[in-house]
TrEMBL record:
<keyword id="KW-0808">Transferase</keyword>
<dbReference type="InterPro" id="IPR000182">
    <property type="entry name" value="GNAT_dom"/>
</dbReference>
<dbReference type="Pfam" id="PF00583">
    <property type="entry name" value="Acetyltransf_1"/>
</dbReference>
<protein>
    <submittedName>
        <fullName>GNAT family N-acetyltransferase</fullName>
    </submittedName>
</protein>
<feature type="domain" description="N-acetyltransferase">
    <location>
        <begin position="4"/>
        <end position="148"/>
    </location>
</feature>
<dbReference type="InterPro" id="IPR016181">
    <property type="entry name" value="Acyl_CoA_acyltransferase"/>
</dbReference>
<keyword id="KW-0012">Acyltransferase</keyword>
<dbReference type="InterPro" id="IPR051016">
    <property type="entry name" value="Diverse_Substrate_AcTransf"/>
</dbReference>
């Protein structure tokens, strides 16, 4: 049986990261300009408490998933919160534990610095992801609003 490996993104992952993130954005029917790709990649390797971080998942030495996450202050806790911003598993690798392993990696990394609250959002129509999320996390019932 193949084993999933989760590790922090490395500079050498750029092509795989770009492919997976593009597929994620395509899934959500979104396109971003090249400048956003460039600044996001740069930020993933910029030191700083609130800079985004990332993991990549491999299966049989092929990159099959990614996640981006970041820490932010909260008025409800002394410790930061962790927002799991992006999570994607290649459709060919779904059902093999990639998404759950990426979530667990973020949870474990946050736990190393005492952060207990790891949270994320998904679209209400994303039934595949919601099946996983309902299994590994608690649904809060909050509804998102934005001013874009």
């Amino acid at each position: 049986m193949s084993e999933i490996t989760i590790r922090p993104l490395a500079q050498s992952d750029h092509a795989d990261w770009r492919r997976l993130w593009t597929d994620y954005l395509t899934f959500y029917e979104t396109k971003l300009p090249e400048e956003v790709y460039a600044i996001t990649w740069k930020r993933l390797f910029t030191d700083g408490e609130f800079e985004p971080k990332g993991f990549i998942a491999t299966l049989d030495d092929k990159a099959v998933g990614l996640t981006h996450y970041l820490y932010h202050r909260s008025g409800w806790s002394e410790k930061n919160n962790c927002y799991l911003q992006d999570l994607f598993a290649d459709p060919k690798a779904r059902g093999k534990g990639v998404g759950a392993a990426l979530i667990k990696a973020v949870q474990d990394e946050a736990g190393k610095i005492g952060v207990k609250n790891v949270y994320w959002m998904t679209h209400e129509t994303n039934a595949t992801a919601r099946r996983l999320y309902d299994h590994v996390a608690r649904r809060t019932g909050f509804i998102e609003y934005d001013l874009l």
